[in-house]
Specification:
By secondary structure, this protein is an alpha/beta fold. The chain contains five helices and seven strands.
């Protein structure tokens, strides 16, 4: 797969410090523990590209990975930890909104959500902002291996129904880093965003 070429490119302490607004980038976001790091590692077939099991609520860097010049994957900090002070949450939300609005190279947003708890408030906020900025969204229902096939399909249908309410380009797919379920579908969507 093309995504195995991903290499660490840079870190930024804040979305506002991201440079290189050229070419195409796709951002990955999700609540802490949603399985974002695992999904990035699965996608790139690299065990430690994105760091898993970070300290909850700690200020995290934005990590940028490069596939080749001007094609990037952006790993946004996980959100939703109760212990983070309100002021910090507000600041982060504001800078995230700004990123979705102003980042010219941003061609798609992957929002990772545990298949058992999709579309929590912050996930919805994020998707609303992306739709308002005409950024296509892939809502990735992670840890799909946690559910049996019947329940998994039911959750997917429910989530697709819920996604219609955003009135935008919001695709829903199931995914598992454990057994690679949904990996081809994820790659296909990323391919279209990157123009591959
Ligand atoms: P992040 O905080 O969003 O980066 O989440 P991580 O990738 O660190 O995963 C959080 C926890 O969920 C870890 O204990 C992972 O082992 C687990 N996890 C991640 N993806 C999967 C998956 O596809 N299936 C299962 N069963 N567990 C997963």
């Amino acid at each position: 797969s093309y995504y195995t070429k991903a290499k660490f490119f840079t870190s930024a302490p804040d979305i506002r410090h991201l440079k290189n607004d050229t070419g195409i980038e796709v951002a990955f976001a999700g609540r802490s523990n949603a399985g974002k790091s695992s999904a990035l590692n699965t996608l790139t077939r690299q065990k430690n590209l994105a760091r898993t099991s970070k300290t909850p609520g700690r200020t995290q860097l934005i990590n940028v990975f490069e596939l080749e010049e001007d094609l990037r994957l952006v790993d946004l900090p996980g959100y939703g930890f109760a212990k983070v002070p309100v002021a910090m949450k507000k600041k982060w939300q504001a800078s995230l909104g700004e990123y979705l609005q102003k980042r010219k190279s941003l061609k798609g947003l992957v929002v990772l959500m545990d298949i058992r708890h999709p579309f929590k408030d912050l996930d919805q906020d994020l998707i609303h902002w992306a739709v308002a900025s005409s950024i296509p969204v892939l809502a990735l229902l992670t840890k799909a291996d946690k559910l049996k096939s019947g329940k998994r399909k039911a959750q997917l249908l429910m989530a697709r129904e819920a996604a219609m309410a955003f009135m935008g380009d919001v695709t829903v797919q199931t995914f598992s880093s454990l057994n690679k379920h949904g990996l081809p579908e994820l790659e296909r969507i990323l391919d279209t965003w990157f123009g591959l």
